[in-house]
Design goal:
It is an enzyme of class 2 (transferase). It is built from five helices and ten strands. It has helices spanning about 1-10, 30-45, 60-70, 130-145, 160-165; strands at about 15, 20, 55, 75-80, 90-100, 105-110, 120-125, 145-155, 170-180, 185-190. β9 (about 170-180) and β10 form a beta hairpin.
Length: about 190
Amino acid sequence: MQLLKDRILKDGIVKPGNILKVDSFLNHQMDITLINEIGKEFKRRFADCPITKILTIEASGIGIACIAAQYFDVPVVFAKKAQSLNLDGEMYCSKVESFTHKKVYDVILSKKFLGPEDHVLLIDDFLANGCALLGLIEIVKESGATLEGAGIVIEKGFQNGGQKIRDMGVRLESLAIVDSMTDDSLTFRE
């Protein structure tokens, strides 16, 4: 998706530790015009799938998932990273390690929102080592739902997450795959 790649080159900032900051347009401040195009692109790429739910993980994936969901005309459900008082009933639970935060989270999702009748599209902003997606895949399997695929806005192709997910046989559509990052340059996979 050239529009996204151009924006990453213009406004993305490479930080030490293979961190790509895109917080000015994707995951802190959100450029809704760009994210709307991202949503349309996910719909185009997964148009052949009978999606009934979009699943993401809090927090950065929620906005992207919501905009994509309007093109699929389906609900968004998101796994929470913390137990709260308003969660009740039975839960799916998975452990997820955050690349950015260097922390392991128990992610939880109420069983009433995902079941065997669902066809799920996973959506997230980044894919690095694949931990978040692996946790969501575990939840989908536990629910008995059908995993149709995963849509990622930016994949770090030089890390192993994408390969892990593809090796599992999951259909993975990344809109921009960064092949290498240095302080002064980014290269994308074509």
